[in-house]
Every structure is written in structure tokens, then in C-alpha cells.
Amino acid sequence: MTETKTRSDADRRQQIAQAASEVFIRYGLARTTMSDIAAAAGISRPTLYASFLQKRDVFGAVIDLIVSRKLAQLAEEIPREPDLASKLRRVCLSWALEGFDLVRANPDARDMFDISFEPVRRSHIVFGRMVSEVLADAGRAEPDLTGQMMVAAIRGFKELADDREILCNMIVRLCDAVAAS
């Protein structure tokens, strides 16, 4: 019974996180309320509070859900790429462009990428590990440091790029430079 209850609690939390992701994307973290989340999930506020004590907890679950799905997708795609530069481009472009395009289409979602929120910071660390693994698999020296540097650079590129094409060009050049070094 405990395992079933735990599973149903986990299922409920995932259902709430999925519904909340759409609300956070539309309104951003600051403007989203627990009432908005409950309504989107089709549950009452007391039911929502039974699963998540505060909005930031829901936000963390949303970020974790989005990141886990993205990492699973990338893990399937990486082996199809023929060389290190292609693998780095696949991972880095996919990661960066999804967020960039989301904010362009939904400006209120910008705060979903604020590094001051622990779940967002954690997502950058997890992404950095994936980049480091790609580098390590290719036998590169200092893959952890290089992966962290690439993540930091890409974050800066996203802040500075005026449009998608410029962002793509910056990321491709970074990936090619790292692969060639």
C-alpha cells in the first residue's frame, strides 16, 4: 500500500508539474499563482498544497521535469552524431535554442531561466555534466572544466544575442573551437 501511495503521489506531482509548466511558460514565475496552477492541473488548492507547500516547490518540479525530458532526448541523439564537433553542436544548440525560442515567444517566461533560482542553477550543472561526458568520451583533457566553461559561455551568449541566427553562430563557433583544441 505504501508503494502504491508513493507512486500515486509521484504521479500527482508529475501531473501538477506538467500542468504548471504551461502556466509558468505563459505567465512566468512571478505572475503565476498557486490558484493558476491548481486550475491548470484540474485540482483544488488544498490538493495542490498537499503536494507542494509553495510555488517555488512547484517551479522546482517543473524545471526538473523539463530538464529530465531534454536530457533524455539528447542522450538518444548524441550517439547518432559522427564526431565531437557535431555532438557538441547537437547538445549545445538544442539546449540553448529551446530556452531562447521559448522566451522569444513568451517574454514573461524569462524568469524561468533566472540562475538565482536553485532549480535553474541545478539545471545548468546537470547540463554541464552532459557536455563534460561528451568531452570525456572523446578523450579531451579537463572535460569538467571545459564543460562548465561552455555552459557559462552559452548562458552569456543567450543574454547577448539579438536574434536566433547570431546565437546559433556563436554556439557553433564555440563548439567547433572546443572540438578542434
Q: Main attributes?
A:
8 helices; 181 residues; Tetracycline Repressor, domain 2; mainly alpha
Order of helices and strands: HHHHHHHH
Using the coordinates shown, work out and report the CATH topology of the domain at 55-180: Tetracycline Repressor, domain 2
- Quote the average pLDDT: 93
State the end-to-end CA separation. 56 Å
Q: How much β-strand is present in the residues?
A: under 5%
Largest sheet: none
Rg over alpha carbons = 18 Å
- Helix content bin: over 70%
Overall structural class, as computed from helix and strand content, comes to mainly alpha
Overall body shape: elongated
Number of DSSP strands?
0
Number of helices: 8
CATH class of the domain at 55-180: Mainly Alpha
Provide the low-confidence segments as ranges: none
Give the name of the CATH architecture of the domain at 55-180: Orthogonal Bundle
Structure, described:
The protein has 181 residues and is mostly helical. The chain has a domain at 55-180: Tetracycline Repressor, domain 2, CATH 1.10.357. Helix content is 80%, strand content 0%. The longest helix has 30 residues, at 2-31. It is elongated. The N and C termini lie far apart (56 Å). The model has no long low-confidence stretch (mean pLDDT 93).
